[in-house]
Design a protein that fits this description.
Low-confidence stretches: none
Shape: globular
Structural class: alpha+beta
Strand content: 35-45%
Radius of gyration: 13 Å
Helix content: 10-25%
Largest sheet: 7 strands, antiparallel
Number of helices: 2
Order of helices and strands: HEEEEHEEE
Length: 107
């Protein structure tokens, strides 16, 4: 469903839980030409280096890799667009434990 839409330029809200100062904070990501171009902390407007944040395609890749290695514990999808809205991972100290995507808007 996601691939059929052919979206390569969009924005979405991303949250993640890990040992990081941005963990648990909604971040607004802008993706252009399937590359994250900007990241803004929603609450403060702080601009963050975008190179460490995932596109929706990257979320699919992470989910597939975690499913293969047995660390994926949960996955949910947006019913309208088909992108992963929630990924949960087996708890590993100091590692990514979950990710959430929401409010996707084509640009």
């Amino acid at each position: 469903m996601w691939e059929a839409q052919g979206l390569t330029s969009y924005s979405y809200t991303y949250e993640f839980w890990a040992f990081n100062r941005f963990a648990g904070q909604p971040l607004r990501l802008e993706v252009r030409a399937d590359t994250v171009r900007s990241v803004v902390v929603v609450a403060t407007g702080e601009v963050v280096d975008p190179r460490y944040f995932p596109t929706i395609n990257s979320l699919f890749e992470r989910a597939l890799a975690a499913a293969r290695d047995g660390s994926l514990t949960t996955v949910t999808f947006d019913r309208q667009r088909g992108y992963p809205t929630g990924l949960g991972y087996a708890a590993v100290p100091d590692a990514l434990s979950s990710e959430r995507a929401s409010a996707l808007q084509p640009l």
